[in-house]
């Protein structure tokens, strides 16, 4: 919501690429800024960040560190412990962290670009603190407000905080009303119409008389018998087995860099309902109306060209999709409002997560046409198989063949496991069952 408020006010504050480095809680506070850089002098120096940590005297601070170098840490467990002792709320690093288990074990939130094992000592030094700096293209000043959660990190200028909060509350209120409308069974194409977003800009909140129905209107679009049959073929498979079958048949189907939002225990299977997004026109077009046409059991597959600067899926779409019996969503791009999808166990597979809306940035360019996802072509009604390992696409006309080979490969691997459990060496088990030929073309 804060990202949306910044958008309305035309303020830069949303960042991309700074993610929680463990399953961190949300943090909100005021920035204590620190700039680091490559060490050039040979003389010993104080360890970076330590003077700033020692100087903190209030309990509302979040350390904001810029200038980190790829592959080299500028955070570790000792400074995490020291920060916690000073009641610092967390750390945002435009760089890397190591010893992340140490931060996690004491419950200290760390957000950054990633983790590494390489120490900052004699590589990175503190250049200055308390000054304005750049974090992922956003200017952050000492005392600015910081909000970080599973979707990413937002910075709000201190002098604009009341304005941003007021607008954010109105956006949140409007979103809550939209969810009520969805629960009442109203088509999402009406709920998410541009006029609804324009209402956010009104100065006062308005009460809603929208009733919440006990149950939403049932999705009238049932899965076809063939869709049910083809999906059932893969219900007991997993993506590694299907991937091996695709390899054996010489079919490219593994969607590169499309990963699960959570560590799903089961497999998501269904025919692809394809959606292609394009840059927004002037005036902008539709962003989510297509979902009213998606059948029960379908997997929504969205081609946003791999864009990571704006989202095409959020909590209202998640809620509506769940109510309509849609099997899951795959996005060559990013999503937001991830807490709802994770908490409600709605399967989402994406190239990342961010908080900035796609409204007025992208629009639907076409549905149920050939698209590309993670370097793989997807035709409408191809079979999507997705789990904690990633996403594979099975051409519809080869689905039965792929499923049969995947079943044989998985059976062979089960037999190998049994032989190993019975005392055989892995080499013996593999040789006996021809493991090295299971995925080989032929």
Automatic annotation (TrEMBL):
What are the alphabetically sorted keywords of the record? Magnesium, Metal-binding
Q: Which residues form a coiled coil?
A: none
Per UniProt, Mg(2+) binds at: 337
**Gene3D superfamilies noted in UniProt:** Ribonuclease E inhibitor RraA/RraA-like (3.50.30.40)
- Which cofactors does it use? Mg(2+)
Q: Which InterPro entries match?
A: RraA/RraA-like (IPR005493), RraA/RraA-like_sf (IPR036704)
Which molecular-function annotation in GO is an example for this chain?
metal ion binding
**Residues reported in the UniProt entry to bind substrate:** 314-317, 336
**PANTHER family, A to Z:** 4-HYDROXY-4-METHYL-2-OXOGLUTARATE ALDOLASE 3-RELATED
Protein name as catalogued:
RraA-like protein
